[in-house]
Write a structure and sequence with these properties.
It is a single chain. By secondary structure, this protein is an alpha+beta fold. 35% of the residues lie in helices and 21% in strands. Strands 1-2-3 form a three-stranded antiparallel β-sheet, covered by helices on one side. A three-stranded antiparallel β-sheet has the order 7-8-9. Strands 4-5 form a two-stranded antiparallel ribbon. Helix 5 packs across helix 6.
Length: 262
C-alpha cells in the first residue's frame, strides 16, 4: 500500500497535487490536500464498455463523476488533480499492471508494452509559484528581461477548449500537406493560459510574445512546468522492432486505461 493513500472500505483517500491551493472559497476542493474517491466495482463494467461514451469522448468525465465522492464540476479541476484521481482509481481498483500501445521514437513501430503504475511520482504545486490572490488559479511571473506575465494553470475546461481550437485549425488547413499538431497544441495551450502581458490582455500582444520572444517564451514555459502540480504518467520500454530504449514516454489517459483489464 502506497504511503500516499489510506484505504477506507470501498473508498480510498488520495493526495491532490494542487493541495487545494488553486480552488477559491466555495469549491469542494478548497484548501484540501486530499480527497476520498470511490473504487470501481464489477457494476462499472457496463460503463467502461459503453461504445457511445467511448466514441463521444465522454467516458473519462463520466468515470470522474462516478469516482469522485464530492459533488464537483469536473471542468473546474486542475489537470494534475484530474490525472491523480484517474491513475489512483485505476491502481486501487484494477492493480498496478498496465499494458499500453506505444510508438518507438526511433523507428516509429508500434507495439503493446507492460508498465508498472505502483510508483507514479506526484509533483505538488511548486513553492516558487507566485499567486496573485491566495486560493485562486491566477499566477504571475517576471522574465529575466522584466516582462510580467499573468497566467492560469491548465484545467479540464481549458484543455477541452485547446483541443477544440486545434481541431478547428486542423480542419481549416486540411488541404495543406503539413499540419504540425504538436506545435499547434503548444501554441494554443499557452495562448489560452496567459491572462495578460505587462498588464495588457490584448490577444495580438500575447500571440506576438509566443511567436517571437523565443528566450522569454521558453523561460515562461519552463516556469509553468516547474510549478504545475501533476502526476508524471511516464514509462520506458525497449522497442521490440529496433531494440532501442525509449525513456520517459508519456502514456495516455484514454478509455483503454480502465477497461482493457476487464
Amino acid at each position: 500500500m502506497s504511503e500516499m493513500t489510506e484505504a477506507i472500505g470501498m473508498t480510498q483517500n488520495i493526495k491532490l497535487p494542487s493541495q487545494g491551493k488553486v480552488y477559491s472559497e466555495g469549491h469542494p476542493f478548497h484548501k484540501r490536500d486530499s480527497i476520498d474517491i470511490n473504487l470501481l466495482t464489477g457494476a462499472d463494467e457496463n460503463l467502461l464498455t459503453t461504445k457511445s461514451l467511448i466514441q463521444s469522448g465522454q467516458l473519462i468525465d463520466k468515470l470522474l463523476k462516478r469516482v469522485i465522492i464530492d459533488d464537483v464540476d469536473i471542468d473546474s479541476l486542475l489537470l494534475g488533480d484530474k490525472y491523480a484521481v484517474l491513475i489512483f482509481a485505476r491502481i486501487y481498483s484494477l492493480g498496478t499492471d498496465y499494458e499500453a500501445i506505444c510508438s518507438c521514437e526511433y523507428c516509429r513501430a508500434s507495439d503493446k508494452y507492460p508498465f508498472e503504475l505502483g510508483n507514479v511520482p506526484i509533483t505538488n504545486l511548486g513553492e516558487i509559484a507566485d499567486q496573485v490572490n491566495e486560493y485562486e488559479n491566477h499566477f504571475k511571473f517576471t522574465t529575466t528581461q522584466g516582462k510580467e506575465i499573468e497566467f492560469r494553470l491548465a484545467t479540464v475546461k481549458s484543455s477541452k477548449i485547446v483541443d477544440r481550437d486545434v481541431e478547428a485549425e486542423r480542419n481549416f488547413h486540411k488541404k495543406r500537406k503539413v499540419f504540425n499538431k504538436a506545435d499547434k497544441l503548444i501554441l494554443h495551450t499557452y495562448r489560452n493560459l496567459i491572462i495578460s502581458i505587462d498588464g495588457s490582455e490584448n490577444r495580438e500582444e500575447i500571440d506576438k510574445f509566443l511567436n517571437s520572444s523565443i528566450t522569454e517564451s521558453r523561460e515562461f514555459r519552463k516556469h509553468m512546468k516547474d510549478i504545475s502540480p501533476t502526476v508524471e504518467f511516464l514509462g520506458s520500454f525497449y522497442c521490440t522492432e529496433c531494440g532501442k530504449e525509449n525513456i520517459d514516454v508519456a502514456l495516455d489517459f484514454n478509455e483503454n486505461f480502465f477497461w482493457s483489464d476487464f
